[in-house]
Amino acid sequence: MTEPDAVAEEQRHLGRLLDRLEELRTDTRARLDAVLRGAGGTPQARSERESFVRLYSAELAAYGAANLGLYFGRLDMEDGEVRRIGRVGLRDDDEDLTPLLLDWRADHSRPFYLATTARPEGTHRRRHLRTIGRRVIGVHDEYLTAPEGGALPVEDTADVVGETALLEALDAARSGHMTDIVATIQREQDEIIRNPHRGVLVVQGGPGTGKTAVALHRAAYLLYTHRRQLDRSGVLIVGPNARFLDYIARVLPSLGESGVVLRTLADLYPGVRATGAESLRGEEVKGSADMVGILRAAVRARQLAPESDVEVLCEGHRLVLTPAMVRSARGRARMTRRPHNAAREAFADRIVDALAEQYVAALTDPVGDAEAAAWAPEGDGVGDLGDPSRPLLGADDRAELRAEVAAAPEVLGAIDRWWPVLRPEQVLADLLGDPDRIAEAAGEYVAEDQAALHRVDGEDFSAADVPLLDELAELLGEDPAADGSEADRAWAEQVRQAEEALEILTGSAVQDIEDDLDPEVLMAYDVVDAESLARRHTADSDLTVADRAGADRTWAFGHVIVDEAQELSAMAWRMLMRRSPNRWMTLVGDVAQTSSPAGVDAWGDALSPYVDDRWVHCELTVNYRTPATVAAVAELLLAEIDPAATSPRTVRPGRREVAWLEPEPGAVPRVVAEEAGAVDPE
Q1: Which of 117, 449, 481, 528 could potentially form a cystine with 445 if both were Cys, beta carbons 3.0 to 4.6 Å apart?
Q2: Kind of pairing between the strands at 622-623 and 649-650
């Protein structure tokens, strides 16, 4: 078959695919419109309607994303089967639901990325299609087994699959955004994208090896393969900066995936945008694991005790708290090993118990001193006060008095003063803004390191502060009283509404005046109480998983992907591991490019505290970005820096030789600008 015939054949199939895609889009849009027209109903019905709106909207987005570059590859198998590969899977609407297009992530699509002449994977021919809009403009065929009556052309290498199609893609004009690489994924990239390891996968690779593209396509593959699990728990992608996230933002939507949380380290803590600057010394000090002990000391420093006795007033009675009593309560609270705000309850209980004993004694004291003299044998005329073995105050009385103590304003003030409810932002701002607090918490640090921690009052937090906020959130915990009161108020309102509904039902029911006549018909109030009714009508949140996960600091993501992971500090690793309790992560980076003073020198050092040696290391060995002429110069420099290091193999030949220039130091910017302006963009 000639190339024009092949183009015409593929054009016909592309037209059928686009027609089918439009049919699906029209059907889904009609379903969405029908759901949106629905109104009213029970809370459960409204919740179900919102779920369908999200489902159909996601499907429409996927169909829209697939429209561009829908069909890009074909496999002719040795057994005669034809497999067409594209962005999404499509089936015909016939009785057999005949496959028209395979999703690139499906297992049957793998030979498109893996097959070589040495390992054809059952493939006779692989075809790459070039399309613009709705038109097929070219095809390129590779024979992996010899065609009938012909010899096997040798094109593929062990490193590069479909080299002609790959080089065309690499030489294409660039925009300001990363594009997906589904049509040109290479063998070593595909093996990483589909790696089945359910732990930490480290992808090491030099500049231009496609680490980021591999990570994003792995996210799309995992969402496709583990849809049920990851739809519930979400995927987190952490990038080095906001500009980078903007650069990669279109890749996953172009692959039909939008349920992913994209964050930088600076905005990974909900409610805080860390825009402040940080010195290199500060970045190094704040990134050290020693900060855990410093932050713990800063929290303990807020757990106080008085130096002398303190009087508090309760219902007109003066009660006394001694330093020993407060220290005892503090010790009991610390022994719970609960976060600071949660341990406050144990502290308060101990304080209230001690004061309640004094309160009871104060109330019974007028009787207590004369009590023994008041008891006399029955009938002696002195008066009978009862059995002296029985206390004047019962358990209910004591409980009521204890409640009075617990609610006394001065008692509450003392508890707040010595064991206050704390917020992470408050504690960190107070610590970094006060040299005395820094000296107290970080006394073992030299003066220069203490100075690096200091932050002028009112300055914004920096990216290096975010892991510290997260650590403090763990040390402090939530405020149980605040959380509970908000939840309790919401729940109480739901129960109140349910009670009103049941009262209406009760009032409208037929009332039988004969007390001994049982009703023959069960009513709602006979089988359900107010709390059960409220629980049944508690609707699910309308937020998507990505929305909920992005706003919840404690969210456990199903999978976490980190780009430029070599830049993470020890404190940042702690922060990320909290978001991945299952330790299912993909980390991409290059320890030879670490620029942060608190970054990673060796993957094992960073990971062993969390997963020991249970992690897998993969390496990308082909450079798809740097021309060979430039790479040759870079290899000379690499040999000077690290003689043991190996550089990736470059596939782009390059169009210009490297020119060596030696401008004066002050003229470097001007010379670089002139040279860049002289480069032919073509």
Answers
A1: 449
A2: parallel
